[in-house]
Amino acid sequence: MYTTLLYFIFLSGVTSFSTTLNLSDFFTDQSHNFINFLEERGNEMEEAFSSSYARAMKMKNTFDSYVEEQQNKISTEINSYIENVKDRGQQIANSFSYVPTQDAASALPSPDAVLTVPARVVRLGYNCETHTVISQGYILQICTELVLLQHGLFASSADWILNGPDKALAYVLADAGYDVWMSNIRGNVYSAEHASLKRNTKSYWNFSWHDIALYDIPAVIDYIMKLKGEDTKITYIGHSMGSTILFAMLSLRPEYNRVLTAGYALAPVAFMSDIKSPIKALAPLASNVAHMEMLYGSHEFLPKNSMFGKLVTSCSIEYVDNKLCRNAIFQICGENEKQYNETLLPVFLAHFGAGTSWKTIVHYAQEIVAKGRFQFFDLGPWNNKKIYGKEKPPEYDLSKITLPIKLFWAQNDLLSTEKDVKHLQESLPATTDVYLVPDPKFNHLDYLWAINTPSLLNNEILTSLQNSFGNSTNS
């Protein structure tokens, strides 16, 4: 603006340069005009500045109002959300913590298949205590509810309660007033701990039922006597391998013939030359298979995470109609459709395979191959000579057994046959009693789960116990 103005004045002066008077007046007028012009422009600039400031202040106020409004809105929404979460959290907490509900999805589909032995016993209204015994470092567990029950191969104390009240022997004995003790062998799920050995080592699994008979069951009996008193009368009842342990213990530790009151063997196993089960054909291969397995670091026989263990687990309650599992058991132990409890099979198999060693399996395989010898573990000629003093392993001296024994056997038991039971009876004292289960189809596992166990087995056991304890008192 100022450049244009000066340029305009210069032109006017040139064009109006005529006389001195006119030039003087001209400059006087132009000076007033210029001053007026500057004043007007100054006013305009002041107005423009004032107007811009007002608009800027208005804009600032508007922005401040917007920000404040948004802050208030956000604050309100956050407070509302927090209050909502508090309300919902309180409702959830109330529903979970205080309000009783019947949630079907939370229920176990088959409690008996997953609960431990103590839990099952207590759930059914019985008292159960757990005792721990240490034998050669193995921490053994005894569940008590005085009859001592010893389970068989691949099993645990669960065997004695699977059939439920009124049928399972542990409950029947407890209801009859007996103090019932159920021991678990070393290495199984209830006696898995050791004081110094790792479970996945050869040293841990280097045992068979010989070691259990020599050390573990005597330790259990000693514990009971110490707890209950030296005059306590104990009857031992063993199923399958439980009976093997009894005969071996009484031979190896004959002093326990005087400690126990009587010994009952359900499906007795000692001599195995006449077994009818298909596993007989596998016996000669057992030692080689075990050797190969142990080379790969597997000293436990068919653990739960093995292929066979997973196959057994697959026989769950949902697939109970699948006859594969049932037929496999019938093939090995004997078929008995009449006493077969279909709903109990998945419960039984859930507890089956509780843990044992390859050495135990090989020891039984040696019994089968030994053709009528009830013998120590065969270590091979060189080691036998070194350990036992001769190339063949010694036999258990059954003539040392003086304890009153009763053998319970069945005609359809493929693992404890009539010929082998008679051989055992002839090797025991003349006072040995024998009971044939009055069902021609009764098999090796029916002692644990048969539908008619009260009439076929339990009543005879109760009568025998009354006689055993009665005779002991009279003597």
UniProtKB/TrEMBL annotation:
InterPro entries: AB_hydrolase_1, AB_hydrolase_fold. The lineage of its organism: Eukaryota, Metazoa, Ecdysozoa, Arthropoda, Hexapoda. Residues 146-449 form the AB hydrolase-1 domain. The keyword Protein transport does not apply. GO terms for molecular function: hydrolase activity. Keywords: Glycoprotein, Hydrolase, Lipid degradation, Lipid metabolism, Signal. This is Lipase 1. GO terms for biological process: lipid catabolic process. Belongs to the AB hydrolase superfamily. Lipase family. Residues 1-16 form the signal peptide. Pfam families: Abhydrolase_1 (PF00561).
